[in-house]
């Protein structure tokens, strides 16, 4: 560390000395310029430029020194342009500066005068440029030579004989400009590569850093080549690219090859790359094994992809040159030859090739599948994919078709798509499965055939079953629920207008879901059941006559499947959910006029209630669900309906809490009186249910008084009163005005005093509202008003 600090301090000192030398000699040079003294100008300018002969500075420090000298050379060039000041023809001046004592100052002066010589047009620019580029070979020190040739490139840039230039003519052609730049590039690249061989091997890391700092000096030549007017495709194909690639391949240097290939891709037009694709790709396969070829190829494919996206008119060019085949072959060769290329590198290349293909050939699914197949082959050569970066690239590879086609159905036709997913670890497999489901939801895609559903559920099996013995208990509960809810939403996206095919889809989904384990079934079975019930109602609207060749798509067959499915759910155990689903199926069976099926589903629901549901709150909810469903069903005969109704009322009376008993019993009254249905208007049994509920409410009041010293609220009585009023309005002959009036008096008595005879002020908003309703009906008049007039308040 101390040695490094000492080296930096020494460099700063040497740089300061060099700058001081330049400034000192520049002062005398300017005094000579003011006096128009050519001899003194040349003397002090040579001394000034001699400061650039140092070998002690790093490239960065040398650049600072070079820029100080460059600023002075600009003023010197102005002096050389004005022949009236120095009195010599430019041709004589060009000869004179060649007598400078040291070659480095001599070449800087020669380049400066050469620029003036070309501008004077007293000689063909190609001759002067050729002379200069040849004589610069005299400086072979890498850093000094690079900066000298960089200066030559800079002063000659606006004097090249390109098309439209004032220096273009019979003796000067675009080829001369190209030849000059190519020759200067070749020599600069050689100097740049030689830097690595300077000094001992212990400073190799520092040398590579210094070389990296100098790369732009070399790359500027390629930028100039890309900007020369008149370099058409033929010239590029026949001269420019072969010469540049020859230098790139032959230099056998990792840094130079990578940087120069990057420059070629960036500076030349896209259409040139396309027309010379084979040559360019051949060079990529000849690079050093240590060169990061994947980045070079990726940049090339990205540029070509953007070019293809720029206009539909250029797509035919890609077809003409068979771009996909050439890129695919080149990538295959690179992956095969670079045995030590990490798997992430190969996956990156496949992603870039797929991106290119989806932009240029979106209609060629065989190309997409071919890329995925090559990816499978590469992944198969790896025992286990553990690199997180490679895994990310595989996900990008699988996501690209989804994003392009906005349709999972298209991806499902790719035979190698699931084979690529097989190589993902469990966590990444789930991520990819979620992306697939999100794509389906986003694009509202409908999967309409059993075969495609089979492929889809194979792709997302990481969400619907445990992979490699993964314990679902280890998963985050929130993440697990989100995953299963996504699967549930997906099931609703599976649909087909043909009942036979839809039944096949349901069977395929059921087959996969049944492997999900007890923790997943409560999430995934309900959407499957409702999907099947949707099919049942579709068949019911078609009279249930549609059958298939293999599996008859009839409601009875579907109900058999549903019974087996819910039975699995009831054994999870998840009895409350299973009971709800049994009742839904019973109602659907009633709509299809299948009394035995509906009765069987009710039987299963009652068995669950008796054997599995022990929680009192769950029992209350279950009873009300049973009563509500039974009330809506009209398929049962008298015997079956009486059996089920008797069961429901019996369960209601045996609930744990008196208020729950009361509410369940008066709810059962609706089972005996159903509007607009002949034969189910048993007013006597309605009255029995309401009186039984009233007795239970009385018992609840007495228990409240015994435990709390007060009778408590009269809510239950008011609720029963409302039931009396409801059935009174429905013209139940067993509900009389005196029954209602007696109940109102009972409620008033309960509200005004407690069991000890003490009066209390107590109001019930529900009761008040009920009385207001009765008064409103009285005032309204008509037939209903006459009925309510019989009730005395």
UniProtKB/TrEMBL annotation:
It is found in: Cytoplasm; Endosome membrane; Golgi apparatus, trans-Golgi network membrane; Prevacuolar compartment membrane. InterPro entries: ARM-type_fold, Vps35, Vps35_C. One of its GO terms (biological process) is intracellular protein transport. GO terms for cellular component: cytosol; endosome membrane; Golgi apparatus; late endosome; retromer, cargo-selective complex. Pfam families: Vps35 (PF03635). Keywords: Cytoplasm, Endosome, Golgi apparatus, Membrane, Protein transport, Transport. It is a peripheral membrane protein. Plays a role in vesicular protein sorting. Belongs to the VPS35 family. This is Vacuolar protein sorting-associated protein 35. It comes from Brassica carinata.
């Amino acid at each position: 560390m101390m040695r490094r600090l000492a080296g930096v301090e020494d460099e700063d000192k040497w740089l300061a000395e060099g700058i001081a030398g330049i400034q000192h000699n520049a002062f005398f040079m300017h005094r000579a310029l003011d006096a128009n003294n050519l001899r003194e100008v040349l003397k002090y300018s040579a001394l000034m430029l001699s400061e650039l002969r140092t070998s002690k500075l790093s490239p960065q420090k040398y650049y600072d020194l070079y820029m100080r000298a460059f600023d002075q050379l600009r003023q010197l060039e102005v002096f050389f342009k004005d022949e009236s000041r120095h009195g010599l023809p430019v041709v004589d001046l060009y000869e004179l500066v060649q007598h400078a004592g040291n070659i480095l100052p001599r070449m800087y002066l020669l380049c400066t005068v050469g620029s003036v010589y070309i501008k004077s047009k007293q000689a063909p620019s190609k001759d002067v440029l050729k002379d200069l580029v040849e004589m610069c070979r005299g400086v072979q020190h890498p850093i000094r030579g690079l900066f000298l040739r960089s200066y030559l490139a800079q002063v000659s840039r606006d004097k090249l004989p390109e098309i439209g230039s004032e220096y273009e003519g019979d003796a000067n052609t675009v080829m001369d400009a190209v030849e000059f730049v190519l020759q200067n590039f070749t020599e600069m690249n050689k100097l740049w590569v030689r830097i690595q061989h300077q000094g001992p091997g212990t400073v190799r890391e520092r040398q590579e850093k210094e070389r990296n700092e100098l790369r732009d000096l070399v790359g500027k030549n390629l930028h100039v080549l890309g900007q020369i007017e008149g370099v058409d495709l033929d010239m590029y194909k026949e001269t420019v690219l072969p010469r540049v690639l020859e230098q790139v391949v032959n230099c056998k240097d990792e840094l130079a090859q990578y940087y120069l290939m990057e420059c070629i891709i960036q500076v030349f037009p896209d259409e040139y790359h396309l027309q010379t694709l084979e040559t360019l790709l051949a060079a990529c396969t000849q690079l050093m094994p240590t060169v990061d070829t994947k980045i070079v190829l990726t940049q090339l494919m990205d540029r070509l992809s953007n070019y293809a996206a720029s206009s539909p008119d250029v797509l035919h060019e890609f077809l003409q040159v068979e771009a996909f085949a050439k890129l695919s072959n080149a990538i295959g060769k690179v992956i095969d030859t670079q045995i030590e290329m990490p798997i992430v590198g190969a996956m990156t290349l496949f992603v870039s090739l797929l991106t290119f293909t989806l932009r240029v050939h979106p209609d060629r699914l065989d190309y997409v599948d071919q890329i995925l197949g090559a990816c499978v082959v590469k992944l198969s050569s790896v025992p286990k994919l553990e690199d997180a970066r490679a895994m990310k690239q595989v996900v990008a590879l699988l996501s690209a078709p989804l994003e392009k086609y906005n349709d999972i159905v298209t991806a499902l036709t790719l035979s190698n798509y699931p084979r690529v997913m097989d190589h993902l670890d469990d966590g990444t497999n789930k991520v990819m499965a979620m992306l697939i489901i999100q794509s389906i939801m986003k694009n509202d895609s409908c999967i309409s055939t059993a075969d495609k559903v089979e492929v889809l559920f194979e792709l997302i099996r990481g969400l619907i079953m445990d992979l490699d013995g993964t314990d679902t208990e280890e998963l985050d509960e929130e993440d697990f629920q989100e995953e299963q809810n996504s699967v549930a939403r997906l099931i609703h996206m599976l649909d087909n207008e043909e009942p036979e095919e839809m039944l096949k889809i349901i069977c395929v989904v059921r087959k996969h879901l049944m492997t999900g384990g007890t923790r997943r079934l409560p999430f995934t079975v309900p959407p499957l059941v409702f999907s099947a019930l949707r099919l049942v109602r579709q068949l019911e609207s078609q009279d249930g006559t549609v059958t298939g060749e293999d599996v008859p798509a009839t409601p009875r067959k579907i109900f058999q499947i549903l019974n087996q499915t819910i039975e699995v759910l009831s054994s999870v155990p998840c009895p409350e959910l299973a009971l709800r689903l049994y009742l839904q199926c019973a109602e659907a069976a009633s709509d299809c006029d299948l009394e035995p099926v509906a009765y069987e589903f009710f039987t299963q629901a009652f068995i669950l209630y008796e054997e599995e549901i022990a929680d009192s709150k769950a029992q209350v909810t279950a009873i009300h669900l049973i009563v509500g469903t039974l009330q809506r069903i009209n398929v049962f005969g008298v015997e079956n309906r009486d059996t089920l109704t008797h069961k429901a009322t019996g369960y209601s009376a045996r609930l744990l809490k008196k208020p729950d008993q009361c509410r369940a019993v008066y709810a059962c009254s609706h089972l005996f009186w159903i509007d607009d249905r002949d034969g189910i208007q048993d007013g006597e049994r309605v009255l029995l249910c309401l009186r039984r509920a009233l007795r239970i409410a009385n018992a609840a009041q007495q228990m409240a008084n015994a435990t709390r010293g007060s009778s408590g609220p009269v809510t239950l009585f008011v609720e029963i009163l409302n039931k009396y009023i409801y059935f009174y309005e429905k013209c139940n002959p067993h509900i009389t005005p005196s029954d209602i009036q007696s109940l109102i008096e009972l409620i008033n008595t309960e509200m005004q005093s407690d069991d000890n005879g003490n009066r209390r002020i107590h109001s019930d908003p529900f009761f008040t509202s009920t009385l207001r309703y009765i008064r409103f009906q009285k005032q309204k008049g008509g037939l209903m008003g006459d009925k309510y007039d019989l009730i005395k308040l």
